[in-house]
Design goal:
Strand content: under 5%
Order of helices and strands: HHHHHHHHHHHHHHHHHHHHHHH
Helix content: over 70%
Largest sheet: none
Low-confidence stretches: none
Number of helices: 23
Length: 438
């Protein structure tokens, strides 16, 4: 069968299966199976068994369930409840005041959960009632939450970076370190925009905040933040052990789980029930992601048999696109894809087709991983199916189009971050190169 016809058939099957509610992983297996049948491959069972086993039975992938379990344990330490009370005293004098709790709270929780939707939902449950009570504008409350919630994909340890690292065969440790500066850049952009907006709209920010917050001494502020220090220390230790070369990503994940269990026990949150809940939660999420990775690996091999990736790569090469032009085209492609798929599915589904083009253009795969995460973050607040928009709608019951409008400035801030990353690739590459030299 001619390749253009094959692309149409397989694309239609994939789209129909996804729209009909079939699991993403099952859809990938189905498309791969049909692709091999149409290619007259007689050893489909053997090919599927060897490919899926090879893709999932790797030591590198062991970091995935461990980091997810670490997040599940810390999630049950009442960290989200401590975030507001721990951060609020320090931000009461900053332009925008307590709106920054959303941004910094999401940043800290992102390093714990690794999930965009979980970050936005958990922090939102805590801060929305508090900020509403104090009279903060709903527009900025929702905008900062929806935008900052996307940090769950980028702030290491990030689940999506592990998935990309396995799919693209790139060092996960280097990817984690590569995400640090871009993550800090996003936090700075979000906080900068919030501060500038607040200074330009002083009448919309409450003129007087909680008297108790304003009168707190330095010692009292430290005491209010005491419960955040152990968790932040654990996160810094996990990342520091990777950067210093003391541990691989998988070993650091194991240390993280141990540290999370100790913290949970020390704070009195570890019981047999919470232990079981965290373990089962991590198992469910890990199995789902691993199933998707297996399906994507099978689809990648099937695509290789069909010759579609090679044809697309050659077509892109024939167009004579520069690396920058290719990035622009891929940004639009990922934005459209984000209308239909979640972040992890986007990454595993596209690597087999996109990476050959990227490699041929001479683009660094580690840099490209950070770029992909930024584009996926944009898709989380892009209507009609941006997941964070639905999370905010569930929390506030506001029309999703209004929520999308509130989140629009943060969409453009993410786009600005992509432009900065493209113009200055050292934002993602400098720290890993420094780590390698050490």
């Amino acid at each position: 069968m001619e390749i253009p016809n094959l692309i149409i058939i397989l694309g239609a099957i994939l789209l129909l299966s996804l729209l009909s509610g079939v699991w993403v992983a099952a859809s990938l297996f189905l498309v791969a199976f049909i692709a091999l049948v149409l290619n007259d491959n007689s050893n489909i069972g053997l090919v599927m068994a060897t490919t899926t086993w090879g893709a999932t039975a790797t030591w590198t992938l062991a970091a995935l369930p461990l980091f997810i379990w670490m997040g599940e344990i810390l999630f049950r330490t009442k960290l989200s409840q401590d975030l507001f009370h721990g951060l609020a005293p320090w931000l009461n004098k900053v332009p925008g005041r307590l709106l920054h709790v959303n941004i910094l709270g999401c940043t800290i929780f992102a390093a714990v959960s690794g999930s965009s939707a979980a970050t936005a939902a958990t922090i939102g449950k805590m801060t929305i009632p508090e900020l509403t009570k104090r009279g903060y504008p709903i527009k900025m409350m929702i905008g900062t939450l929806a935008g900052s919630g996307t940090l769950g994909f980028l702030i290491p340890p990030s689940i999506i970076l592990i998935v990309y690292g396995v799919s693209a065969e790139v060092s996960i440790s280097r990817l984690f370190i590569a995400g640090v500066i871009p993550g800090a850049m996003l936090v700075t952009l979000f906080m900068g925009y919030t501060a500038v907006w607040s200074m330009l709209n002083k009448d919309k920010i409450p003129s007087e905040d909680d008297v108790e917050l304003s009168s707190m001494s330095f010692g009292q502020k430290l005491y209010a933040t005491r419960r955040l220090f152990p968790v932040m220390g654990l996160i810094l230790f996990v990342l520091g052990s990777i950067y210093a070369g003391w541990a691989t990503a998988t070993e650091a994940a194991a240390l993280g789980v141990f540290g999370a269990l100790v913290l949970s026990l020390a704070t009195g949150n570890l019981s047999l029930t919470t232990f079981k809940e965290s373990l089962l939660g991590a198992t469910r999420t890990s199995c789902m992601i691993t199933f998707i990775i297996a399906g994507a690996a099978f689809l990648s091999l099937a695509m290789g048999f069909t010759g579609i990736p090679r044809m697309l790569a050659e077509s892109i090469s024939a167009m004579g696109l520069s690396p920058t032009e290719l990035i622009i085209v891929l940004t639009l492609f990922f934005m459209v894809l984000g209308f239909f798929l979640d972040g992890i599915s986007m990454v595993v589904l596209t690597t087999s087709i996109v990476l050959p083009m990227v490699e041929r253009s001479g683009i660094d795969l580690m840099w490209f991983g950070i770029y992909v995460v930024l584009v996926v973050e944009m898709s989380q607040i892009t209507p009609p199916v941006g997941f964070n928009l639905f999370v905010m709608q569930g929390l506030t019951k506001i029309n999703i189009l209004k929520i999308a409008g509130y989140a629009l400035p943060f969409f453009f801030l993410l786009l600005t971050a992509i432009v900065l990353l493209t113009v200055f690739p050292q934002i993602a590459t400098w720290l890993p190169e420094l780590m390698t030299k050490k």
